[in-house]
Inverse folding.
């Protein structure tokens, strides 16, 4: 649960916060003065502070200054009811997360709080590399024991302590952001801010203002000066996500920040100097973008000094079971018993190709825990397209020709979709045994321990006995074996007890 500390001497504001932010995921604490707020800090350990600026006694600005002396990372949002925002701007320079004008726009405030809480978590939640799964109680982990992930962990360990720029590449959902945070957590700057910006999520015309800030009147709507992410992250780490989507003009400015830590705010001519470490990530092949002149070559080389390529999940299927275990524990919550997983379901998860990588796996596990009715997740609880894809892919090498699903049962002699199935009622109507066998193998492959022949034989006998209401003579005939053989099999498989034929 996230904790929000509101510092405001107005009872009305405290009241509306209680209304706006009453949620089971958020714990709201209030203080009526800066002094009280600072006192509550140690006690409450909030994830976010929202403070008024004008208050009797210690004002919001001074409160922020003192708070920063003990904690550089705790996000603080300031509020002011007065048109002049000069004080709020001063506060931004002191390291406030943002400021809002009263009366506030509720949805915007909620969005801002959500973002700030996220930033707060990014800074505080420790990211551990390759957690020992047996220990169970961990927060956020980069899970993986496969060889390619070991390489990743080594690289993270090597680059984290330095201030080197890092480029993390990999398909969507491979954990780029998680690795960026692991680097931050393990760096010398871990007590300083971590500011993340998704370059693809911000409209091109706003991106520069977001990164570098702007001066008042820089463009229509720029009613006040604004501090950008680089200034906010001064002393800390700036994570530029999806850097491959950054416009060329902005790339030029980023290059300058990388070279000498300087830039100008949009619409300004005063040079600002910052000390930031840059971690960038992209799922686009930057080499290709360079070749197509969509990405600056010099910036590419500058970013590419240390590169951490993240493997796709299908390249490390051995990690799937670790990840599943990790997600099941995480979903269960601390102390609770996690859901278990049927062998067949795990086998399906392990043979799927995971185009959406770890994110897709995580969503799949989350969905399955919701869908599953019992203590275990079964094959049937997985999405149908997943199990179908797995079944289609595991059609064995013995398969003759790929049979379209519509032609699943046709005459073996007339295999091939272009030949019409035999007319019903003729002697030619016999199932496509090969196709049936392949279906059995598909399922068998989902459970490596299963022995196909005995399993099928057992099932056939049970079905035959059910069909004939337990009449062994008829069942034997149906199966094409002698009654003596049937009796032996029934005994061997211990069918009687569970069939319950009456
Ligand atoms: N090795 C891992 N161990 C545990 N969880 C992981 C791992 N890799 C990724 N995840 C989880 O998968 C999800 C996606 O990871 P993340 O956001 O870091 O991917 P990404 O590479 O940045 O994806 P995108 O390119 O789509 O932004 C997150 O919830 C993350 O916690
Ligand atoms: Mg990402």
């Amino acid at each position: 649960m996230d904790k929000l500390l509101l510092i405001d001497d107005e009872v009305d504001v405290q009241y509306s916060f209680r209304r706006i932010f009453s949620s089971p995921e958020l714990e709201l604490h209030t203080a009526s003065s800066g002094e009280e707020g600072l006192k509550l800090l140690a006690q409450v350990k909030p994830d976010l502070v929202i403070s008024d600026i004008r208050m009797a006694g210690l004002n919001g600005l001074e409160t922020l200054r003192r708070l920063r002396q003990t904690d550089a990372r705790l996000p603080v949002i300031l509020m002011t009811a007065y048109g002049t925002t000069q004080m709020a701007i001063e506060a931004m320079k002191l390291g406030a997360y943002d400021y809002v004008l009263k009366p506030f726009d509720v949805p915007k405030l909620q969005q801002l709080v959500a973002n700030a809480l996220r930033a707060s978590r990014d800074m505080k939640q420790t990211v551990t590399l390759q957690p020992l799964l047996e220990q169970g109680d961990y927060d956020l982990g980069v899970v993986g024991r496969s060889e390619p992930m070991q390489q990743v962990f080594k690289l993270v360990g090597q680059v984290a302590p330095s201030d080197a720029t890092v480029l993390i590449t990999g398909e969507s959902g491979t954990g780029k952001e998680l690795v960026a945070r692991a680097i931050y957590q393990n760096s010398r700057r871990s007590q300083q801010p971590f500011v993340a910006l998704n370059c693809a999520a911000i409209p091109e015309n706003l991106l520069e203002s977001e990164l570098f800030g702007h001066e008042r009147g820089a463009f229509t709507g720029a009613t006040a000066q604004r501090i950008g992410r680089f200034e906010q992250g001064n002393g800390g780490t700036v994570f530029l996500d999806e850097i491959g989507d950054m416009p060329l003009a902005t790339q030029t400015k980023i290059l300058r920040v990388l070279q000498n830590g300087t830039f100008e705010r949009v619409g300004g001519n005063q040079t600002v100097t910052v000390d930031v470490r840059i971690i960038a990530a992209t799922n686009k092949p930057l080499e290709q973008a360079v070749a197509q002149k969509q990405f600056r070559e010099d910036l590419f080389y500058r970013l590419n000094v240390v590169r951490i390529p993240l493997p796709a999940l299908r390249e490390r299927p051995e990690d799937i079971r670790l990840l599943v275990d990790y997600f099941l524990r995480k979903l269960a919550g601390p102390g609770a018993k996690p859901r278990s997983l049927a062998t067949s379901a795990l086998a399906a998860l392990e043979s799927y190709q995971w185009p959406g990588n770890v994110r897709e796996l995580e969503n799949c596990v989350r969905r399955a825990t919701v869908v599953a009715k019992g203590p275990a997740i079964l094959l049937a609880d997985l999405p149908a397209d997943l199990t179908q894809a797995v079944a289609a892919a595991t059609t064995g090498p013995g398969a003759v020709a790929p049979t379209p699903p519509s032609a699943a049962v046709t005459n073996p002699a007339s295999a091939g979709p272009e030949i019409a199935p035999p007319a019903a009622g003729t002697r030619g109507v016999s199932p496509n045994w090969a196709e049936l066998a392949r279906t059995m193998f598909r399922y068998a492959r989902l459970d490596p321990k299963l022995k196909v022949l005995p399993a099928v034989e057992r099932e056939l006998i049970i079905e035959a006995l059910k069909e004939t209401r337990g009449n062994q003579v008829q069942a034997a005939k149906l199966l094409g074996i002698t009654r003596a053989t049937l009796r032996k099999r029934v005994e061997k498989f211990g069918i009687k007890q569970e069939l319950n034929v009456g």
Observations:
- Residues 451-502 form a domain with the Arc Repressor Mutant, subunit A fold (CATH 1.10.10.60).
- The chain has 21 helices and 18 strands.
- The mean pLDDT is 84.
- Residues 156 and 331 are 27 Å apart (CA to CA).
